[in-house]
Amino acid sequence: MPNRIKERRRERLSSHILATLQQEKRSYRSGREAETGALIASYNVHKCVGMDQRFDPARVEAVIGEIGADIIALQEADQRFGSREGLLDLARLERENGLVPVQVKGHPKCHGWHGNVLLFREGSVSHVHQIALPGVEPRGALVVDVDLKAGPLRVVAAHLGLLRRSRIRQAEAIVTAVAARGERPTLLLGDLNEWRVGRRSSLENLHPEFGPLTAHLPSFPSRFPLFALDRILGSPHDLITGIEVHDTPLARVASDHLPIKAHIDLKHLTSTAPSSKGKIAA
Question: What is the C-alpha separation between 65 and 99, in angstroms, rounded?
Fold first, then answer.
């Protein structure tokens, strides 16, 4: 009898957790519309293996085309072991979507750095810094300075580890690396592998430099998204005017993560005084 009571309590608790997760928001709005119209996205492509267990890079490329981002960070775009060969048709992405990869140093056959690839449509790259992140697993991040028509932008593309203690150290390493580069509007985006919020979250180490941490939008697993593993954060916080999950029938099967996308407003930053909130010191 006691075992049955415990089982019922566990079932009620599981139902409550599931109901809470299902109520998570699907979009975030800052309350101010972007003037530049720049669209930024992040997408863990799961080595191009979909929810049907089929390897299909063309399907992933079609989702990237659906998004229509000006800048997009991809995770797991290379094989993890061996030659670490890139899995996407970069020539096709450039031909059909105008997206070109930021060049990195690494294995000759890979697309990116520890599976992180940054693609952009317009602008020029002035600096690329590759970070080997601390932790049990081999992880990395790209810190890229891009000069757009609307102004300068720094993009940090990252894929954090599975262990909380590793993510804490990795978040600290990213903040330190960005601060060392000097002040510039900055986006941190990628699969940050953290669904918790509040003091228990490893992302708290990013505060107050990056935000909004309250933009908690479920993107995993793609068929029935419950966990907000993928993030786009800005410094200063008002760099981002809106974030949403890219949820389409194709995106739900192409990878185990849904892409997320954000609108940013560089024009607003250049026309107003710098915000003290979320400012990164030089």
Answer: 10
